[in-house]
């Protein structure tokens, strides 16, 4: 049966690895991006080169209209939706809480919390057996920061991911009887571009000595966990928060 998945922030880093892995697993893929159309197009080209089907859809996770358009485009151009991966998220430059502006906090929480909530809402409307759907899976990308707190650097980011953890648990219980499984993956320090956007491209190498495994993780290691959670191999797993963090 043909099926599709929406991967928010699917053009780079962890999102790119998830998009490519989902295509290999047989999904048609909506590769969402906010700004980098070229990167998203490269992911689609790579999927199509191996016989898969994918589309790019620009949508800003802070704008409800964009999110609605993303889902409607997927409905129209791809197979029936079977999964959502809430991967899009932002981090800001390292700062103590006392130095955080209202603008920073609003941007952080709208992107990292409200966006995933709206995406989950739209996915449930399509997946839930109570709405005539066939069930499916939602995987939220959280962070090990949710339990560490990220003091002195990213307490706002950590708090936003803690909210995602709670949403995962609550929504999982809410829709468990409607054929939808909801889980979260909490990456540790992973080699992706997000560190550069936070002003420290070499952050993984700086902090990896604090990881019990003494190394940073790779995007593919996160993607493998996400795809397991979307597969039938995890059919009795819902409401779970899985750390992929090298033991941190």
Describe the protein:
This protein is an alpha/beta fold. The protein is built from 9 helices and 7 strands. The protein has helices at 13-24, 37-49, 64-77, 102-127, 145-148, 155-175, 194-197, 203-207, 219-230; strands at 4-7, 28-33, 54-58, 81-86, 136-141, 180-187, 241-244. Strand 4 (81-86), helix 4 (102-127) and strand 5 form a beta-alpha-beta unit. It comes from Sneathiella litorea. GO terms for molecular function: oxidoreductase activity, acting on CH-OH group of donors. Belongs to the short-chain dehydrogenases/reductases (SDR) family. This is SDR family oxidoreductase.
Radius of gyration: 17 Å
Number of domains: 1
| CATH homology superfamily name | NAD(P)-binding Rossmann-like Domain
pLDDT averaged residue by residue: 95
Estimate the global geometry from the Cα principal axes. globular
Given as residue ranges, the uncertain stretches (5+ residues, pLDDT < 50) are none
Which strand order do you get reading across the main beta sheet?
Answer: 3-2-1-4-5-6-7
Distance linking N and C termini? 39 Å
Class from secondary-structure proportions = alpha/beta
Number of strands: 7
Write down the CATH class: Alpha Beta
Query: Do you know the CATH topology?
Result: Rossmann fold
N-to-C SSE string, H for helix and E for strand: EHEHEHEHEHHEHHHE
Structure described in brief:
It comes from Sneathiella litorea. With 248 residues, this protein is α/β, with parallel strands linked by helices. It is 45% helix and 16% strand.
Write the layout of secondary structure elements.
Elements: E1 4-7, H1 13-24, E2 28-33, H2 37-49, E3 54-58, H3 64-77, E4 81-86, H4 102-127, E5 136-141, H5 145-148, H6 155-175, E6 180-187, H7 194-197, H8 203-207, H9 219-230, E7 241-244
Helix pairs in contact: 1-2, 1-9, 3-4, 4-6
